[in-house]
């Protein structure tokens, strides 16, 4: 077998790398910036000593190109290259609209 037969095409390798990016789901808490939303992601973590489940939250600045997110929406965000000093995530889709 030659070396060329074993190699994976360039386009397939880039798509494999893209699928490994982190994806989080959270609630939009602020839309006051242009093309940027603040998404709060909550996760339940068990306390290492006492075993009680605690809710931890973290805020992410996500890029919203079209500006179709509103406060209270549940959105899915994906990790991406740094867009600005604080923005390294982008909105993939709106899971649920706010009522």
Provide a descriptive summary of the structure in words.
With 99 residues, this protein is mainly beta. It has helices at residues 3-6, 10-19; strands at residues 23-33, 36-46, 53-63, 74-79, 87-96. The chain has a five-stranded mixed beta barrel with strand order 1-2-3-5-4. A hairpin with a 2-residue loop joins strand 1 (23-33) and strand 2. The longest helix has 10 residues, at 10-19. It is globular and about 45 Å long. The model has no long low-confidence stretch (mean pLDDT 89).
- Percent of residues in helices comes to 10-25%
Quaternary organisation: single chain
Compute the average pLDDT: 89
* Uncertain residue ranges: none
**Number of beta-strand segments:** 5
By secondary-structure content and strand pairing, the structural class works out as mainly beta
Number of helices: 2
- The 3D shape can be described as globular
Run of helices and strands: HHEEEEE
Q: What is the CA-atom radius of gyration, in angstroms?
A: 18 Å
């Amino acid at each position: 077998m030659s070396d060329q037969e074993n190699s994976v095409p360039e386009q397939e390798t880039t798509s494999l790398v893209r699928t490994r990016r982190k994806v989080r789901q959270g609630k939009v808490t602020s839309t006051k910036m242009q093309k940027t939303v603040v998404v709060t992601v909550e996760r339940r973590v068990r306390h290492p000593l006492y075993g009680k489940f605690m809710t931890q939250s973290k805020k992410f600045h996500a890029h919203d190109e079209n500006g179709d997110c509103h406060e209270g929406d549940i959105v899915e965000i994906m990790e991406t290259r740094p867009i600005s000093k604080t923005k390294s995530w982008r909105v993939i889709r709106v899971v649920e609209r706010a009522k």
